[in-house]
Sequence to fold (194 residues):
Amino acid sequence: MNVWVIGNGESRRNFALNQIKDHTIGCNAVHRDYSCTEFVAVDRRMVNEILRNEATQGRSVWTRPDWTKEYSLPRIKTLPDPPFTGTLKADIPFHWNSGPYAVLLATAYNPRQIHLLGFDLYHTNNKVNNLYKDTENYNRSDTRPVPPDFWIYQLKKIFNYFNRIDFIQHQQSDWQIPTEWKDIKNLTISYDIV
Fold:
């Protein structure tokens, strides 16, 4: 089994999601364009948006433990705690975003490979890099980008902890791998997005 985790970085703009035949975990607003096998959202507004979309009916929506109590729906699931600890702010589960949580969730299926799509990490013009900017529940396009430090750190911990899984990051040819990831043996960068 392989799992695809679909983020919302602009690199996936022209990627045909319907070509994916494996299990898919979508982050946040990807539900607007593609009905993944299941979804992850750590923002309550986004959880509510996913629940309103008729195309997602019957699909699990994973969110923070504190928020699952607010919903009496069996399809609302509690995200797993990270299997590692640490002393940094980035180690605290509340400081995990949907992307790292979705990758962590993908590991629970014990797949051979986990594909990351739309995990751009960086901005391209000192503005937010998200396909859904300027839409409901997202920042405006002129907003400063979120620093990627936590994502880079958290994903590296996942890659290293689950070192028997091959992680494949799909990107455009000009994307630069974070320096912190260069020594990760079970991570491959596939420059297959045009």
Summary: Residues 149-161 form the longest helix (13 residues). The two ends are 26 Å apart (CA to CA).
